[in-house]
Each structure stands twice: as C-alpha cells, then as structure tokens.
Design a protein that fits this description.
Elements lengths: L8 H13 L6 E2 H8 L3 H13 L3 E4 L2 E4 L1 H23 L4 H9 L7 H10 L16
C-alpha cells in the first residue's frame, strides 16, 4: 500500500461519502455530501477545498469526483478499517461495537502499520462483515 496523505476524520468521512454515493458517471453533489455528513454546506466546502488541495478530488459545477489518488485513499481507508475490525472481533468485541470503535481512529493508521497488523492476523481476505480486503 502506498503512503497516504494525513486526513482528518471529517476528510476521511467525506472521501468515503463521495466514493460510496457517487461515481464518475453520476457525481455526487455538494448538497448530498452535506446531508450525508450532517454538516452545513459551508463546512463541506472547506473540507472539499482541503481534499482538492491534496489532489484527492475534483469539483465542477457543484459536483464532486474522486481523483485516482482519491480512490487509492478510499481503498486504503476501507482496508485499514476492515483489518482493524477483524482484530477487534477476533479479540472478542461485538461486531457492531468493533465497527464503531475502529471508525474513531482507522484513518490515522499509516501503511506500514496497516501491513504489519494485517500480517499479525494472517492477511485476512474479508472483514467480519464479509467485505473484501484487497492487497496490492
């Protein structure tokens, strides 16, 4: 996994919202992101400016699309979440509780630590929810 930009929690949430609710063919609008994140549009605009300066998104006429770097960042965030969730569940924490707890810090993990944690739990190919963990 490639080294990722340092993101804030809100930036992470925004990247996830964009990827999971929009596409290149049907980009998500700023107003939809604000609704999903339960934030006011001016707050989302500031988050989007930061993501754009990091090269993770492009914006045009109120629509937002992840760049290739943004898609890589999304994949990295999701994989970290799924690896950490696996560790939590394997240690006896309830699946939904594990998901909530991991969401509080999954975006802070660097790529080296993520790979070491993955190796520690045997390089799982799916999280406890059954969603894939993709390496490469």
């Amino acid at each position: 996994m490639k080294e990722q930009f340092t993101l804030t929690r809100r930036e992470r949430d925004c990247v996830v919202a964009i990827r999971e609710n929009g596409s290149n063919e049907f980009p998500i609008r700023l107003s939809e992101i604000a609704k999903i994140m339960a934030l006011k549009p001016p707050t989302v605009i500031e988050i989007l400016k930061r993501l754009e300066s990091k090269g993770l998104i492009t914006r045009e006429k109120g629509m937002v699309v992840l760049t290739d770097s943004g898609k890589e960042s999304y994949n990295f965030i999701v994989n970290c979440h799924r690896i950490l969730e696996t560790i939590f569940v394997d240690s006896g924490i309830d699946l939904e509780e594990a998901c909530r707890e991991v969401s509080a810090f999954d975006y802070m993990i660097d790529s080296d630590s993520a790979m070491k944690l993955s190796a520690f739990v045997g390089k799982p190919t799916a999280c406890p929810h059954g969603k894939p963990i993709i390496y490469g």
